[in-house]
Amino acid sequence: MEQRVGNYELRDLDPIFNARSVAIVGASTNPEKLGYEILNNLINMGYEGPIYPINPKADEVLGLKAYPSLSDVGKPIDVIAVIVPGKFAPGVIEEAGRLGVKGAVVISGGFREIGNDDLEAALVSAARAGGVGIIGPNCQGINYPANKLCISWPLIKREGGLALISQSGTIAAALGDRAEKEEIGISGLVALGNRCDIDESDLIHFFGADPSTEVIAVYIEGIKNGEKFMEVGKRVAGEKPVLVLKGGRTERGRLAAESHTKSIAGRGEIFDAALRKIGFEKVESIDELYDCAKVLAMEKKRPGKRVQVITSSGGSGIVAVDVLEELGLDVAPLSEAGRARMKEVLPSHCVVGNPLDLTGDTPAERYKEAVLALAEEEPGIDLYLLIFGDPIPRAMENCLEMKEAVDKPIIACYIGGGEVEEVEFKKMNGARIPTFPTPERAARAARSVLTG
Amino acid sequence: MEQRVGNYELRDLDPIFNARSVAIVGASTNPEKLGYEILNNLINMGYEGPIYPINPKADEVLGLKAYPSLSDVGKPIDVIAVIVPGKFAPGVIEEAGRLGVKGAVVISGGFREIGNDDLEAALVSAARAGGVGIIGPNCQGINYPANKLCISWPLIKREGGLALISQSGTIAAALGDRAEKEEIGISGLVALGNRCDIDESDLIHFFGADPSTEVIAVYIEGIKNGEKFMEVGKRVAGEKPVLVLKGGRTERGRLAAESHTKSIAGRGEIFDAALRKIGFEKVESIDELYDCAKVLAMEKKRPGKRVQVITSSGGSGIVAVDVLEELGLDVAPLSEAGRARMKEVLPSHCVVGNPLDLTGDTPAERYKEAVLALAEEEPGIDLYLLIFGDPIPRAMENCLEMKEAVDKPIIACYIGGGEVEEVEFKKMNGARIPTFPTPERAARAARSVLTG
Q1: Which of B 275-314 lie inside 8 A of A, CB atoms?
Q2: Tell me, what DSSP letter sits at residue A31?
Q3: Which of A265, A296, A327 corresponds to the end of one domain?
Q4: CB distance B260–A314 less than 8 Å?
Q5: Are A352 and A236 part of one and the same domain?
Q6: Are residues A195 and A217 in the same domain?
């Protein structure tokens, strides 16, 4: 089933991501091999459909009955992972096509990336002939936690609102790993590889419609089909935020990108203009891609630009104010009524203003008291940026109570808190209070939620 | 003993940092109190001189004999920590002066920061009268690992080349904590507090002459004495790199800074011009302050601007090239001879160029082979930026072997490597291969070593 967007018929990727059965072609009994690791990850992910290891030399792999070939399985197979040497891949796809397989994640390399254009053409021919959608080749696979489908590494189990689409397997893996460790989770992860068939536009379209995806984060070096990207982009940008980091902004970066993906990378300024036209957001670094995506996975974009900073660390508050101002946000002073109320609520040694400096000895409860009182006196505040700049226990619990009482985004920085910080940092992100290790990163991430 | 710099007599801080005995005024038996934590840290740091807890209500604190007052100790005391309520601090300093104490680290607050200018004036009078140098008041203390002198929190034990001077206790603590966890270590840490006596210039001067300090990282909101700062700065900048992050660059940031420290923060552009004139380097964020200081703690600045990127992750290599180019470094292509040699040394699927892409399946040994061969063919390379973009074991051992064979800085990024990365990241930094979590941060840090 295809879906029309502008002039383009987009493949329906639902049968791939929601595959009801998976075969691993090249499943290995050797723990050093990728064919072992990927099967192992799929099992440990808890995939609920049948898994068929394909290995002509083994009866069993990782406790599952193995089959000499796809044809020997004798049951319907929705998706296959291809981990055999590249030269065998077209044959595998041909066989898969005959068996009605809907999609193939081709991990194998040895195609266009090393100049074997003919082999890649043969792969595409086989795919077209058999109606098999291909992700890759030469890619690090896919992960779709809603279907417990991890055909990739590392193993990322936690489900969240963040979809990662990346022309770099390493960058996808690194960001997915952060999302797992910080308890943010992902809605999906796709390493594009050579994009011989399914491309970034197909995937942006899929995650645009995916119910668990709140934000799409893309690392890309060049667009495969510009017109298709624009058509799909405009459609999706109206629905969900899409953040884009472009590799190859500079001249030498561009040449390296063309060498990396053997495709036209595209000039930075033309790319930027296209993003603006679509309504996608450009970011400048891997950290920024992750940080903004993390916030947007938890908080909806909303109008406004006024930010109130509340801090226990004077210096960190000032650093946050600098960045917020530089980003065009409004670090407005409190009103007379707001100041008066703060002086009433807070001990006299607190410095009332914006930043509101609770000073070093503050308990987490004081942040909550300040926010609840400000919510009454200062309805114009659009976002609270809370900086926990010491070991302050119970930050998470107090933030959650604020969040329930106040209908404004709460973004946090936790810094200088030693072991208490380590615990609270994870708890806060897990409780959907987006929390960052420096005031600068928290301020940049806050920017991405407010539309001005 | 004072030291003349230009028009200024600078206090000799050696007797404070190399104190042979310490008294903790306000030592507490209650683990919740700062007077307990600081004494505990000093003991756990392994301080080798006598420690005298001062507490009129206890015979013993943390296993050490306690004294009702400084006068009761009856032995020479070089330095005291003051953790009693602020109103008692001038009396303590007066007594200390009579006893020949050389320095006081006044942790206590309640002075100028909350408008109690008179109390702070009394503190200064007592200090001047008794010849006691004061750090603080209202500060998070000092740490000087060479003398195992930690009068501060958190406990940072590892000795390294990085001196931290900060007008924010939290930022100092956060950076010190990173240096401890990443096995970088510090040569010293000072939280300035209200700077009623000893100021940033005195401390920059001290660490400028300190043998274990390789780089001085400063967070500051405003300069206490501009002329003194310029005189000292010019002297020290000729000896060691000094990195400065200024809080209060923007107008609202500046107002917040003045409110934080109750002193003139200074306009950003004037400050920047002064830094340039001195030869200090301005940085833009807490991460950049730490990252550049980390590299300069391990690597001397040197002429040159040509960087060779070697990566296992194509995308991460491209991202690094973009940032290096944007920073004005030269990501030069390899010479014909260099290319030929690489094609000889490396498997055919590697992409020879700059970045040199070893691709995803590379072992750590291949980086070493590439670097050793390039060292022969490409003497013009000034710095190697190595990106380990997968779980690649033995990265540290191989980097160390390169470092021994090649007289060029080696800076690394480790990304997307899961559990292997966690282990190698720490090992590499500990082995003095400065290693960063993203290619952007590695590239920025690399910039700080090369003078162009």
Answers
A1: 285-287, 312-314
A2: T
A3: A296
A4: yes
A5: no
A6: yes
pLDDT by position in tens, chain B (length 452): 457 888 888 889 999 999 999 999 999 999 999 999 999 999 999 999 999 999 999 999 999 999 999 999 999 999 999 999 999 999 999 999 999 999 999 999 999 988 899 999 999 999 999 999 999 999 999 999 999 999 999 999 999 999 999 999 999 999 999 999 999 999 999 999 999 999 999 999 999 999 999 999 999 999 999 999 999 999 999 999 999 999 999 999 999 888 776 666 567 788 889 999 999 999 999 999 999 999 999 999 999 999 999 999 999 999 999 999 999 999 999 999 999 999 999 999 999 999 999 998 899 999 999 999 999 999 999 999 999 998 999 999 999 999 999 999 999 999 999 899 999 999 999 999 999 999 999 999 999 999 99
* Whether residue A266 sits in one domain with residue A309: no
Given B278, B298, B318, which residue is the final one in a domain?
A: B298
- Domain membership of residue B209 as a residue range: 156-298
| DSSP conformational letter for B87 | G
Residue B72 CB partners (closer than 8 Å, separation 6+): none
Do A79 and A23 lie in one domain? The reply is yes
Q: Which residue carries 């893996």 as its tokens? A: A173
Distance of alpha carbon A200 from the chain centroid? 14
CA B121 to chain CA mean position, Å: 31
What is the ipTM for the molecules in this complex? Answer: 0.95
Contacts of residue B11, Cβ cutoff 8 Å, sequence gap at least 6: B2, B133, B198, B202
Q: Do A221 and B312 touch (CB under 8 A)?
A: no
Report the candidate in B189, B183, B246 with the shortest Cα–Cα distance to residue B216. Answer: B189
CATH number reported for the structural domain that contains residue B97 in this entry: 3.40.50.720
Structural domains counted in chain B: 3
Q: Which residues of A touch B439 (CB under 8 A)?
A: 286
Q: For residues A140, A141, A145 and A150, what is the CA-based torsion angle, rounded to 10 degrees?
A: -90
Query: Is B440 close to A285, i.e. CB distance below 8 A?
Result: yes
Same domain, A276 and A336: no
Is A286 in contact with B109 (Cβ distance < 8 A)? Answer: no
Q: Which residues of A fall within a CB distance of 8 Å from B167?
A: 315
On whether the CB atoms of residues B44 and B63 are closer than 8 A, the answer is no
Residues B293 and B169 in one domain: yes
Task: Please check whether residues B14 and B106 belong to one and the same domain.
Answer: yes
DSSP string, A228-285: HHHHHHHHHHTTS-EEEEES--SHHHHHHHHHHHSS----HHHHHHHHHHHT-EEESS
**How far is C-alpha B88 from the geometric centre of its chain's CA atoms?**
32
β-pairing verdict for B149-152 and B141-144: antiparallel
Within-domain flag for B452: no
Rounded-to-integer distance, Cα B323 and Cα B344, Å: 30
Alpha helices in A99-148 (DSSP H): 117-130
CA distances from A404 to A185, A292, A341, A432 (A): 22, 22, 21, 12
Examine residue A66 and state whether it is found in any structural domain, yes or no: yes
Residues contacting A250, CB < 8 A, separation 6+: A268, B321, B322, B325, B326
CATH of the domain at B251: 3.40.50.261
Query: Looking at the domain assignment, is residue B351 inside a domain?
Result: yes
Chain A residues whose beta carbon lies within 8 Å of the beta carbon of residue B331? 252
Nearest CA distance, A61 vs chain B (angstrom): 23
- Flag whether A328 is in a domain: yes
A211 and A328 assigned to the same domain: no
